[in-house]
Amino acid sequence: MNVEIVNNSQKQISTRFKEENIEDLLFEFLRDRTKLTERAYRKDLKHFFAFTAQHFGVPAFINRKMHFEDIQRVHIVKYKVHLETTNCLRRKPYAPNSVNRKISAVSSFYQFLLVREIVDRNPAEHCIRPKRLVVEETQAFTDREMKDLFDLVIKIAPPLHKAVILLIFTTGVRQSELRGIKLEDIKHHEGISFLHYIGKGQKKNTMPLHPTALFYVNEYIKHMEIIGRKIYPGDYIFQPAKNTYNGRTLNKLSHTAMAYIIGKYAKMINKDKRITPHSARATFISSLIENGEDIYYVSKLVNHSDVRTTQGYDKRKTNFRKNPVFNLNFF
After folding, report:
1. Angstrom distance (rounded) from CA 46 to CA 327
2. 200 and 95 co-located in one domain
3. For 272-318, where are the alpha helices, taking DSSP H only?
4. pLDDT (tens digit, 9 = 90+) per residue, 272-326?
5. What is the distance between the terminal CA atoms of the chain, rounded to a whole angstrom?
6. Which of these, 131, 221, 115, lies nearest to 167 by C-alpha position?
7. Residue 66: φ, ψ to 5°
8. Does residue 188 sit in the same domain as residue 292?
9. pTM for the full predicted model
């Protein structure tokens, strides 16, 4: 009796499967995600299915349709072991966080298939994943280094570089959020300017703009108009030097360009620190906490759902000069 029920269930899944095209499924699965996330998911899923096809001959792929129900938990486990033991392009096995991400991509996709009733289980659901480890911590600038950085940038940097660096370090927004800001996202209320943007997890956030940062953003916008590239309300504020269409730039600044801008001037301040766009967020959070701001307020300000995440961004917690031991009244 149980065998018959299972067989009937498999037949129903197989019937539904015949009506599904893999590209249509991927489009539906990825349609609400950012382009960067979409590329990452596609790459991870392609890598997984290439592995199972090569080593186990599953899932069956017929007429652009894939028998996803062929994948079992053992295939996920074997894939995890493969990632942890086989050298990748970097000539060493994948780091725990990369393994975790790849397994999560497979699990998320199968959860989607489960909801769509294309499979009757998620084979990755109970697969034990490696603990997340910080292989290389994000480095942050001190307040003194930040003053030196701003002085340098204001003195020698072109308008775009000034605006990018002052805005990202004084708001703590993620580089993807900064790149996605449009002119219409800057609002004004009671003499204060605010940045309204959609953050990670599609969360809406509002960040007050420091007057100095706003000044150089406006200077950059004026500069763009002078050179014949006026930025309209619906346009991205930070634009690449090329890729114009009828005098309008429709693309936003790339993450590579953002990293180059920040890295270029950061090396002039401290060549021994690896400062990235994400370092701006760590610097912003660390400075606020070190200067006495309540960590719960800071957590809310940067749109963290858990204050423990904010604590992880505090890169100055080992400031020994402020250690309570120096407050002892024994001597």
Report:
1. 58
2. no
3. 277-290, 295-301, 307-313
4. 999 999 999 999 998 898 888 888 888 888 888 788 878 777 765 555 556 556 5
5. 83
6. 221
7. -115, 135
8. yes
9. 0.65
